[in-house]
Amino acid sequence: MTAKLFVRNALVCATGAMLLAGCGGGRDTEPNDLAYVARDVESLYTAAKDRLDRGDLVLAAGLFDEVERQHPYSPWARRAQLMSAFSYYAAADYNRAIQSASRFLSIHPGNRDAPYAYYLIAISYYEQISDVERDQAITQLALAALTEIVRRYPESPYADDARLKIDLVNDHLAGKEMEIGRFYERTGQWLAAQLRFRNVVDDYQTTSHTPEALYRLVETSLSLGLLEEAQRYAAVLGANYPGSEWYLKAFDLMEEHAPERVAT
């Protein structure tokens, strides 16, 4: 299931009653823009829901916002805030989705749909994660938001999905550390490279990058003349990943540069 489909299905589960209410009754309006026109709350909400169903996401979001502006004290305003956040998310306007969901939480922190609002914020950050060659500030925000879901709502379906995504985010961040570490190693900055590889081993040890990080620590330790340290990293690699290509490469490297260490 794609992330957007999961979010939409979750919205139906979280706000099913309001969707049913929005599908019936009221006038079927056809607004051409978002110019202020005073309308009763049900007609305005129904118009927004109709636009959402037809895939006119930006206009739908604007109309849901208009529900809150025109009828701030109506129960529909709370419903519209969450629908606005979803509409912006579906339109890939992630900043507005985050703002709208955050506004919902600031006004209704204990609402039963609060877990969904937290999830919308997290997934909006998550879908902005860029490749490892770019700055990872958004990745860190995604990790923090996903972790917050698990902390607050550990038994919710949102937490289950967040845990999966946390693993992927950690793997991504480890990949960034590896990319920087390899650069430092290629340019002969052994100590700086070791710092990055150690970060992977210490902070992201359950990711797919750990075996290579241990191998690179063997390499850089040998380059620094630290044979005992290289042997220690090779031993950890062998104990935890005995059949990996990285252990075999580390074994060959140690045999080439410090055969007496391999024999002991």
What features would you describe in this structure?
- This protein has a domain at 1-128: Alpha Horseshoe (Serine Threonine Protein Phosphatase 5, Tetratricopeptide repeat), CATH 1.25.40.10.
- Helix content is 74%, strand content 0%.
- It contains 14 helices and no strands.
- It has helices at 3-14, 16-23, 41-53, 57-70, 75-90, 94-107, 114-126, 137-152, 157-186, 190-203, 210-223, 227-240, 245-257, 259-263.
- It is elongated and about 85 Å long.
Summarize the entry for a quick read.
The chain has 264 residues and is mainly α. The protein contains 14 helices and no strands.
Low-confidence region ranges: 16-33
SS elements, strand count: 0
| Major β-sheet annotation | none
Let me know the average pLDDT: 85
What's the number of helices? Answer: 14
How much of the sequence is in beta strands?
A: under 5%
Q: Considering the protein shown, what is the CATH homologous superfamily of the domain at 1-128?
A: Tetratricopeptide repeat domain
Question: Helix coverage percent of residues?
Answer: over 70%
Structural class: mainly alpha
Shape label: elongated
What is the second-level CATH architecture of the domain at 1-128? Alpha Horseshoe
Order of helices and strands: HHHHHHHHHHHHHH
Mind telling me the CATH class of the domain at 1-128?
Answer: Mainly Alpha
What is the CATH T-level topology of the domain at 1-128?
Serine Threonine Protein Phosphatase 5, Tetratricopeptide repeat
